[in-house]
Design goal:
Layout (H helix, E strand, L loop, with lengths): L1 H25 L2 H28 L1
Helix pairs in contact: 1-2
């Protein structure tokens, strides 16, 4: 389960970066904002998983 969550976090971060880049390229502020939001979700999920790993030690 943890590996799946880590993979999902990386996927959200990558998807967000792609959306943000595409939004900037075409001048779409909404798409840029969605991309940033996806990145934050991925960062949050990744931080949560790191805290779980630290708690296990």
């Amino acid at each position: 389960m943890a590996a799946d969550e880590k993979t999902q976090a990386k996927t959200e971060q990558a998807k967000g970066k792609l959306k943000e880049t595409a939004g900037r390229a075409v001048g779409n502020e909404r798409l840029t904002a969605e991309g940033r939001a996806d990145q934050v979700k991925g960062d949050t999920r990744q931080a949560k998983e790191k805290m779980k790993d630290i708690a296990k030690d």
